[in-house]
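DATA SHEET
Item: assembly model
Revision: 1
Owner: S.N.
Input lines:
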Amino acid sequence: MKKMCNTFSIICCMLISGFVWAEDSPSALLVPKGILSIAAYPAPPLELNDIDGNPFSLEQEKGRWIFVHFWASWCGPCRREMPAIQNMVEKFKKLPLTFAIVNTAEDEDTVFTFLGLLAPDIVSLMDLDGQVTEAWKPRGLPSTYLVDPAGIVRYQALGGRPWDEDEYLRFLTELSAQSAQQN
Amino acid sequence: MRQIILRVLLMLALGLSLFPIGILYAEDERPPPGFENTQLRLQLFPWSTEQMAAFFEARGFPASMIEALSAYCFFTASIKNKRNDVLQLDLANWEFVSQDGKLQRIPRSQWPPLWKKMNIPLASQSTFRWMLLPETLDFYADEKEGGNIVLRKTTAVFSLRAQFGLGENTEPVIATVNNLQCADAAGAIQSP
């Protein structure tokens, strides 16, 4: 009987630790193609105004997963990716996932015209002198990072991705569900 | 019989009229200079001075910056890693060689002091920097990235020997591209 109790408690411990690991480790998720689970590091500062002049701070968004995306109108892959981002943003309106879509070093007119044609519902943040982008050190443009609710960069996307496809939506939905559980 | 002959003649005439279009189309569809094997694809797209100036002007670059850049030869390089592991780019291992010897590539580090001296706005500096191919980058499996390579202008025909690393104790991949030329090499080019 004692032996059975010991075995039972060991199994319980294993199960509990398994749950804890699954919650702590984002790598337990099914990560879509082109998304890298990277060595975690604190997100660099990101405080910018959006194209309408409203301030945004990454710090204030802690407690939710944040989709940080850097783009420019001159970059071909950014042009191809932006409609998919708009579709994705639409789908996540009611879920706890924050979008920080940052234009790198362009003016309001350029951004307004570009988004007006390709993704009119996206409100971009304006990194007017490119210095915030510089601090994030992307591999190139476009570049996307996923920041966890504690402000730690966990994932990086390689180039442009089809964000409105099922595997990406499922992945982001699971991440945002984690934010909801923790809040 | 007459009708058959007429039809054949008509088809011949139509065929002959389309022949030059076919040639033109084939010429337009020529792939850019490049290299491809089972491990990587490298393509080089030359920019003429006019294309470069128009592009930068549209991005609001100051006239002084565009004038300074017109003294150089631009190629946009597109690289795709076709391997299942990392392919290492290090531009220090790229050699551009003409009959007269090695050509000088302008590394990323040479631009900021010049822009600072010329009081170029940070936004233009930033855009220019993001358009350059990184000096070093580990390409992940299936990753594709691109960016500009800047050379001193030359009228010479030259070759590129680009070496990509595969990690320690592994032979690098060598990509060779011959018959390269600056886009407006035919015109009179003055180096600053």
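QC remark: Chain A is about 40% helix and 25% strand.
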